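User: I'm curious whether this sequence folds into something compact or stays loose and floppy. Could you predict its structure so I can see for myself?
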Amino acid sequence: MNKMNHEAIVAAAIQSANVVKPPSHVEEQMELHGKFEWNLKRVFSDRIEQYTQLRDQAELIHKKATSGIISRITLAFHLDFKKVDDVLADIEAKMESMRYVVEDGWFPNLVTTVGKNYILDNGLAGSGFTAAYYMGLISSTSYTAVNAADTMSSHSGWLEAGVANAPTYSQGSRPTAAWSSASSGSKSLSSALTFSITGTGTVKGCFLTTVATKDGTTGTLYSAGLFSGGDRAVVNLDTLNVSYTASA
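Assistant: Here's the prediction. I'll summarize afterward.
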């Protein structure tokens, strides 16, 4: 083998080695995403009176069952020995039959910086951490924008609906998020959260936070998003159902 052929073979070997050489490091990237899914239901116009009576009946039963004034056993006696929860489920089924879907859809959300930090701190270094998330509504009142820098104590571009800002809803606190097991890098609510509208107003979107208090400014704002296709006008007796899916 002459010198020229030897050098050519060595050069080819070096080139081949460079092709199969593993990278010095592998960078794994993960971004947090999510989407809200929703539907808006309205009571048939000829069923409003009956619907209202059933709603008031359910609220009275629930109040008595949780107030401590009357025991659930005594209350069950007055309800022909049916369990309170069963009676309420029967009433809700009747109410559901009186509603129809006005519209539905989905929209992406913005995961805030504090929300990302919250997941990283508790997911990678949390100790004795118990997750708790609640959903709120964003009002159209004085709205300008949602921002990645928003927090529960400082979100100058939007206001929460439910108490001081329209529309109002009957739930005493922000509905609680309950989750199904994660699968394929996604985690969804086990069932949609319900907002029972009690006053006319316009909803811009929704947000997830770690404190249940309506109009509260404590806790961590995880994410916020706006309805795709524009705002959603609601009226008394409407039911807004919203679900959420987080993915990475």
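Summary: Residues 48-67 form the longest helix (20 residues). Confidence is low (pLDDT under 50) at residues 8-22.
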